[in-house]
């Protein structure tokens, strides 16, 4: 009895879906001898009923052919060209199936991306929640963080909050995540800025009236995080468009501050900075005034 190469046998059983009975019929017909169903049953040890189904499937694939010899139906291996044609059809069919699967997967991924573009809000509370929030911020980016930081509030923090900030800063430096800070041009702000080269950060100071925030805000990746240290509450807004606008506003304020004299923006100029940043948020840009 002839045998099939292992790679061909694996393809026929694992990919083309040949049953063990079909494989046995094919192997015995490789001798080139035409055989009746009874002869195949005697050689394979299978029942004629099981082989009848296998033969029908092989006939349908045009891998074997039926011949009448002395009035009895016998089965023989088809011509090499017939087998090649079956292989081409099978490969073409598999390519179509894979193409449809690719389209289905693309639709699935597009749906995920659509969901990711919608805002998702996450809350943290208490000392444990704040520590978890700081750790998560570091996991959301591997390059840099943008921070709006009220230094006066930092100086008034209790020991537990200060210790939390120190652990966060240490882990940030360990991961080599650069921190960019906007804060007020005050004595406390200048003292904070003086330690930048020790803390792997850059602090830009702006006039106090240009910095109305009373809480710490950090942008990490596609997330905007707001920290209320007084109440030990944190809110994460996972929204790529909003994070992009916040970064854009941050860059505009930094560029304006570093390129000219102390911040003396008029109210109209400040509004223009914010509106230009908000232009990148589709549903806000249509309604700006």
Write the element-wise H/E pattern from the N-terminal end onward: HHHHEEHEHEHHEHHEEEEHHH
How many helical elements?
13
Cα-based radius of gyration, to the nearest Å: 36 Å
Shape: rod-shaped
CATH superfamily of the largest domain: Endonuclease Chain A
User: What's the CATH first level of the largest domain?
Assistant: Alpha Beta
Sheet with most strands: 7 strands, mixed
- In percent terms, what proportion of residues is strand? 15-25%
Summarize the structure.
With 289 residues, this protein is of the alpha+beta class. The protein has 13 helices and nine strands.
Secondary structure topology:
Layout lengths: L5 H10 L4 H10 L7 H8 L3 H13 L3 E6 L2 E6 L2 H37 L3 E6 H14 L4 E5 L2 H5 L3 H16 L3 E7 L2 H7 L2 H4 L1 E6 L9 E5 L2 E6 L4 E6 L1 H20 L7 H12 L3 H4 L4
Parallel strand pairs: 4-5, 5-6
Antiparallel strand pairs: 1-2, 3-9, 4-7, 7-8, 8-9
Helix pairs in contact: 2-4, 6-8, 11-12
Give me some keywords for this one:
disordered C terminus; 289 residues; two-stranded antiparallel ribbon; 18% strand; 13 helices; 2 domains; Endonuclease, Chain A; rod-shaped; seven-stranded mixed beta sheet; Arc Repressor Mutant, subunit A; alpha+beta
Report on the architecture of this protein.
- With about 290 residues, the chain is α+β, with helices and mostly antiparallel strands.
- The protein folds into two domains: about 5-80, Arc Repressor Mutant, subunit A (Orthogonal Bundle), CATH 1.10.10; about 120-285, Endonuclease, Chain A.
- Helices cover about 55% and strands about 20% of the residues.
- The strands form two sheets. A seven-stranded mixed β-sheet has the order 3-9-8-7-4-5-6, with helices on both faces. A two-stranded antiparallel sheet has the order 1-2.
- A hairpin with a 2-residue loop joins strand 1 and strand 2 (about 70-75).
- Helix 2 packs across helix 4 (about 50-60), helix 6 packs parallel to helix 8 (about 160-175) and helix 11 packs antiparallel against helix 12.
- The N and C termini lie far apart (about 85 Å).
